[in-house]
Design a protein that fits this description.
CATH architecture of the domain at 71-216: Orthogonal Bundle
Strand content: under 5%
Number of strands: 0
Distance between the termini: 10 Å
Radius of gyration: 19 Å
Organism: Streptomyces lutosisoli
Order of helices and strands: HHHHHHHHHH
Shape: globular
DNA-binding region: 45-64
Pfam family, one: TetR_C_14
Keywords: DNA-binding, Transcription, Transcription regulation
Helix content: 55-70%
Number of helices: 10
CATH class of the domain at 71-216: Mainly Alpha
Domain HTH tetR-type: 22-82
CATH superfamily of the domain at 71-216: Tetracycline Repressor, domain 2
Length: 221
């Protein structure tokens, strides 16, 4: 396995229109999350979300199919951040260690703002237990994150890596984070320390990737 991954491809800069679209979607997602936390999905309508976000109802439906779908951008934000951290991994780092480091950093809660974000995720995951549509959004977000992770993992693993191993590593990492967040949401543990998302995710990753470590670390010595 090559220990010198090629540079990550640059992400094309978003146009002003694309940035405005993304900002509007995130505003709507935050409004939906707030209302779901306050009133639950059953007590919230698309009209309520549009009103809270300060947009017309037609704008809401331009971006989202239903009220549950509206929280998708918020749930996906964490995955976007951790993939970027992984892509920036120092060359020569063995893949299992790179995955752990990116997970720990992305799931840490260094300040009050980050801690509030985790509490928001906890509220959504708790609401999803009794809301199949909201749960489907969560699973879709994770599936999309896994698919976007595969080329990042493959690049870090090197040109001689088995594509199946790279795909399994991406699936394991995605599952580790998903299961950790779901398990944490069922508790009252804080966002940092024992029982935190970061601690649980690393435990899950080590369990899932235990048998893959020798293969994925080949050629790193």
């Amino acid at each position: 396995m090559s220990s010198q991954p090629s540079p990550a491809p640059e992400t094309p800069a978003l146009s002003l229109t694309e940035r405005r679209k993304a900002a509007t979607q995130l505003d709507i997602a935050r409004a939906a999350s707030e209302l779901f936390t306050e009133y639950g999905p059953d007590g919230t309508t698309a009209e309520d979300i549009a009103r809270r976000a300060g947009v017309a109802l037609r704008t809401f439906y331009r971006y989202f199919r239903n009220k549950q779908d509206a929280v998708g951008p918020l749930l996906a934000a964490g995955g976007d951040r951790w993939r970027a951290l992984l892509a920036a991994t120092e060359p020569g780092t063995a893949l299992p260690e790179a995955l752990e480091k990116a997970i720990e950093e992305s799931l840490s809660a260094p300040d009050e703002h980050a801690a509030e974000g985790f509490q928001q995720t906890r509220a959504l995951l708790r609401a999803a237990v009794d809301d199949p549509a909201l749960r489907a959004v969560w699973y879709r977000v994770n599936q999309e994150s896994e698919e976007r992770l595969i080329p990042v993992v493959a690049r870090l693993a090197g040109p001689d890596a088995d594509p199946l191993e790279a795909r399994l590593a991406a699936a394991a990492a995605t599952a580790a984070i998903r299961i950790a967040l779901e398990s944490w949401a069922e508790t009252d543990a804080t966002a940092g320390g024992p029982g935190s998302p970061a601690e649980l995710a690393v435990r899950c990753l080590r369990q899932l990737m235990g048998g893959m470590r020798p293969l994925l670390a080949e050629g790193e010595a």
